[in-house]
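Task 17 of the worksheet. Students: predict the tertiary structure of the chain below and write it out as structure tokens. Keep your answer in the requested format; marks are given for formatting as well as content.
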Amino acid sequence: MKQDNSYQIEGLSGTIERAARCLQGTMGYLSTISENRFYDINVKDVFKISLSDIGNPDIVGNLGIRPDPRFSARNEPLGQLTDLMFYAFAVRAPFLRRSVTSPKSNDKLLADLFAACLSKGANDRDGIVAETFKANMKAAKSKRTEPTFNGEWFRRWVYSQSASNGVNVAAINNPNLFMLGCMDALLPLYYAKLTEVLLKEISGVV
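Model answer:
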């Protein structure tokens, strides 16, 4: 694997950033669905469409739904969520080394990839994700099983929020619980899809 390849690093970090933006966008659609009690929409369709192209933040719009502007990334507190999702994906980069042909030579690539993501805005606000690149790299080099990518960090973020700009994701109500349940199911699927895409891209620079 090439040790200094800024072009490929830029492409990989861009893929992770777009995935984070798409996931935040999907949450906006899910919140719109739940807020308006569109419970007759099959959630499996939302998952299927959103996972079909994790590089397109408007892909869920194919359902014929327009997201409520209040759930846009341009509206706080959801704006900061994109950076948090970006970090949650980026900090897992060390585990990619387990699926490529020459792990030792990939360490620099993965470190540079994580640094590029941080420079683009990946940010573990208030330590909510509570993972570090160093700890994950150590775990990735061991025989320990990769920790499950689940919605615990997302729930921590939700419950740390207060009402802002007409959005109160922390309120205990049917719409928010619907959204939380959907995100719990979607997050590991989204992470698995992103990993698949990244490995395909990395295989092109090995």
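Marker's comment: DSSP finds seven helices and no strands in the chain. The helical segments are 6-35, 43-52, 78-90, 103-119, 133-141, 152-159, 174-203.
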